[in-house]
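thoughts on these tokens:
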Amino acid sequence: MKVLRNNYLFYGLVSLIAIVLSLWLYYLAPHKGSFHTNYNDFLIFRQSFRHLLQHNDLYILYPNEYNDLFKYSPSFAMFMVPFAYLPEFLGLIAWNVLNLLVVFYAFRNFSFRNDKRMLLAMGFILIEALTSLVATQSNCIMAGLLIITYICLEKKKLLWATFFVVLSIFIKPFGLVAFTLFLFYPEKLKALGYSVMWFILIFILPLLVISPYGLAGEYKSWFLLLKNDHDSSLGISFFGLMHSWFGLTNKNAELYAGAVFLVLPLIRYKAYANHLFQMLFLASILIWVIIFNHKAEAPGYIIAICGVAIWYFIQAPNKLNTILLFMVLVFTVLEPTDVFPKPFRDKYFTPNFVCVIPCVLVWIKIMWELMTKNFSLQEGSSAENLAE
């Protein structure tokens, strides 16, 4: 608790965890002439700015530099400037430190209203955060940005709320879903104006290093890549679960149905002012963008796990919720770890999309709560009531 309440100690400890993990990654990865290291995704991000600077197509293979494709926006490549010029080793450390700091900053400033609950929530997401960091992806940043958007809205910092949500879109387009949070707050036209401003500024940011014609070509290549990805992939998601268990292949129908259920609680407009309703809806978004994501991977589940943690630790515990939380811990958080031997995972868990099931069940439970709870301002709107 002393560490939690001290800025320097808390963020120092979080940074130390990321540094130790980065050292492990760096020295574990093969360096004997192979570019396909254990931190391949960081190499993709790091090289993206150099490719942009050289006016190269960002969305083609560069097998002599890294494995796989760059799948983020051209503006994301601009965000990688400091990591592109740092030595590879220091860049890897800085990238992982940034990821872990963003998500834990979000949790430390979230309205748990009770330090014990905040600490338990942080403990719950830690293993999944490390799983994401091992892959050197941007999922911790994404989770943090979506939660920070909500925090800024709560603090009436509309300019920053719109900045963070628009920034998330240029990292991963599913950040668009977080705009539904703005329905709960006044000054919607101002929010729209700020959002348009940030969108234009971030959209044209690569013009600092390439021509308008070159930027148009990069966005064209990116949109084509996203379309091909959507057509060819199911991901570790509800789509994969339905295909594995029932042979269903109509991914678009499943996505539309999931979207309808996501926004269905918004018909309860009288509950918009209730903090519990707002936080539960945020939790539902964090889980939804992963379980209904055709490109969902194990490292991306930190976003959904943040949603599960928020859902559980903002409410008084009950037996059903605790059982669901335990299922998420065992079958989602611990599933990709050595708790389960790899042959066992490969035979039983992976082909049956076991890790998806607990998150789907929690999401359904949240939807039920959003549709049936009494969200009158007299019950559940104060911080004290949320904590007790």
Remarks:
- Residues 7-28 form the longest helix (22 residues).
